[in-house]
Here is the input.
Amino acid sequence: MRLEEIINEHRQTLNETDILVYKYIVQNRAAVRHISIHELAKNCAVSSTTIVRFAQKLGFDGFGDLKSMLKMEEGAKSYCQTDVTADLHDFYRQTADKIFKRNFDEASRLMHEANRVFIFASGYVQSNVAQELKRLFFYDNVLIYEISGKEEFNSLSKNIGKDDLFIFVSLSGETPLVVDFAERLQLLDVPFISITKLHDNTLAGLSTINLYVSPAQFGLYDNAEEHTAFQSMLPYFMLIEVWYVKYRLYLRRLENAAENAP
Here is the structure.
């Protein structure tokens, strides 16, 4: 798990000083992997005790554990080599390795137990992901209703409840409309799942569950300034396909448990 994921899980417990420390770590990630707690405290203009408390809020025993986690993180790879197909193949393999290791049980439980399921996509590619998600889960008689805009959401919010489930598909997780919807759902105590790019974002911090993806850009043009960079969105589609397969396996486990119950 990367630092951004941990921060999003614990965002509600962090104060302004914690966020200041976090931002410094993110902006100086390589250096923080090797500095002492006293150096970090000095650079953030806080006490060493504050750093320890920050780490503990994230579930670590202390700064040493946090620094060890940073050292284990994979650095972001730049795909700018001559052999773009080899880079793409490497990216697909790494993406598959990460997604197949993910535990989808809680997301599957919410999907299975929901009275109704709604989805909102914040862009063109995201809308295609939403359509594919609807198609896959339709095989299991799970009807996912797509919400197209603010007026539709306003109408829905009048009768949506704790037994329903909402899904957001967003790249940045910072679109004002999406954040507004998420905040209102949280006030209504409606569970929701977000699918966003792996980085610290508001939507992920608000979500009941966040499923991360990591798109990547590839250098296909000699003069990159004259062309829009090619960005692989395969992680979105791979994630929902793996989720669906693991959802089916989740249901099978429930069925087996019921059959073997005394």
User: Anything to note?
Assistant: The longest strand covers residues 192-197. Residues 151 and 176 are 15 Å apart (CA to CA). The beta strands are 117-121, 144-146, 165-169, 192-197, 209-213, 216-218, 230-232.
